[in-house]
Amino acid sequence: MSNQRPQTQRQPLPQHALERIQRMRQQAAQNRFFTSDLSVKEFLLVREAGFECLGLVMGSSIYHVGYQRGNYYQNMEMGVLTQALYQARELAMARMEEEAHELGADGVIGVRLNIKQHEFGESLVEFVAIGTAVKAREAAAGSPPGGWRAPSGMPFTSDLSGQDFWMLLQSGYRPVSLVMGNCVYHIAHQSFGGWLSSVGNNMEMTNYTQGLYDARELAMERLQYEAQLDGAQGVVGTEIHETTHGGWDNHVIEFFCVGTSVLPIKVEHQPPEPQLVMSVTE
Question: Mean of the pLDDT values across residues 152-175?
């Protein structure tokens, strides 16, 4: 798999989704109604940061993951599987962004990427992206000259919580986009001779070490490349997940990295002073 990010086109939305978004947009314009998966604390901090919640937005993609066999005694990337899982996530993200765009949002925060497997089809995996669309008020402090949207013109995306989003803005940075990288890797099986030589000995299993090391590095490299394509200065909140999806050989593992790329909006970056908070309970 190359480092080049696939060009995901804007995705058409189902009719019911368009109708729901249209109703939400009309109600949001009248300051009457919104939906959100933010906690009460997150909601209040997002408002304090100068943003209004517009509604819950989501996107999904059910993808058939192709078959690929790895060399039994070789560490290798499973390119077919890597590309399938990456593209499925991109499609789900693109549809969530399209809902936010139709809603008139500046961005989406608290994005979650979930994976589901259904019994109605073999090798079918559903990827779901869901988050809360937000829009900056005119008086939002520190508004960047070009607006809050990503360089692509679509709403920014972020998996930061409401608290982290507030802290990021207070520190002079803004989110650009949710960036990710993945790698599905086949870890070579140990030969009988290698197993025999390790019995009763303390020794590093270099074959396994190198395979897992390479897989993580490939996933991280792709995440960083996505952030650089967006012109971001860095990535915050990076997480690395290791998963063996159902039906795969137990030597096949996906390493998935995800984080939020950021840019500065102030020349001087001064985080807010920490404050002591005492909880009073009975």
Answer: 93
